[in-house]
Amino acid sequence: MVEFITMAPTSGDGEYVGNTGGGTSKLEGWTASAEREPSLAYITEIAIAAEKNGFGTLLLPTGSNCLDSLVIAATLVPKTETLKFLFAVRPGFTAPTVFAKQFASLDYLSGGRALINVVTGGSPAEQASDGDFLDHGARYRRTDEFIQVVKRLFTEEKFDHEGEFYQLKAASLFPKPVQAEPQIYIGGASEAGIQVAASVADVYMMWGETTDFIRERIEEVKAAVSEHNRKLSYSISFQVILGDTEEQAWANAQKTISKADHIAISGKEQANIKGDSVGLKRLHQLMVDSKAQDFRIGPNLWAGLTQVLSGNSIALVGTPDQVADRIIEYIQLGFDKVLLRGFPHLETIGAIGSEIIPRVRARLAALEL
């Protein structure tokens, strides 16, 4: 069974991407193009729409310009019934004992609807702004140790731990999570990231790329997982831009970045140069290589948003049938979780729920997948 995931726009939302407004917007401090503030009312509307439209999980991101993921998750629990909350945590900002307590409390109060997204971090500047100065390799070693400690807190009554980054004496956790084995999601395109995922994660997350690139990556991860005698689930993420016709869909794609300005584009370029995320550099190269083709990197696949967005920026562009067909192709590569989002998030969630998810499920049933 394929699960659909979407994301809450806790940095703000809007129809256009990359419009900084010259720094004069009343929403200054939120993500560029934030025409809609991430208010309690709006984020609640997002969660309710996700649950209503066939999404099983809502990702709550972390970052310097996001609302706190744990606070948002706790706020949304009583406003939903079945929706799971995949909330992000950065090991450099939160001790594993503190996080385990937060998670277990949320899991208890939600009746087992909490999931974990461990984010190692790929921007040295952002890490440093919060007092974290570890290099890329050390951050992944810390992530590995963080997850190991959290898992022990979930399953053991009391233990000591003496590691490279954490030292604990007679550590214990109350309450234990409701779930016997809470799922831990992790991404990371570097060798270090893949090895950590292979050894301690439950779900490996990938950003959308071409099917050829994704096929190579997933086989690489599976090989690493087999060395640890483990199995993982796999998640892939895309933006979605729809139209009644393919031509209209591409016009809608262009509209999305029609107000992007040099501040946003230059800022994204500088962030990529200064960052050390292998995944972001892969996306940037896809964008650069496809510029002459109007950023089209494959059938119904577009890297135009990568000009102004970090992370999940590759878009599926087309009619509902075309987008559903492309999603099936990725599912057949081995993905059992698909994260779909778009701009503005609320309307896109509704469109995906009515036009994409039913088509994908019908195709999967016909293929007996």
UniProtKB/TrEMBL annotation:
Coiled coil: none annotated. GO terms for biological process: alkanesulfonate catabolic process. Gene3D superfamilies: Luciferase-like domain. Residues 34-336 form the Luciferase-like domain. Keywords: Flavoprotein, FMN, Monooxygenase, Oxidoreductase. Signal peptide: none annotated. GO terms for molecular function: alkanesulfonate monooxygenase activity. CDD domains: Alkanesulfonate_monoxygenase. PANTHER family: ALKANESULFONATE MONOOXYGENASE, ALKANESULFONATE MONOOXYGENASE-RELATED. This is LLM class flavin-dependent oxidoreductase. It comes from Paenibacillus psychroresistens.
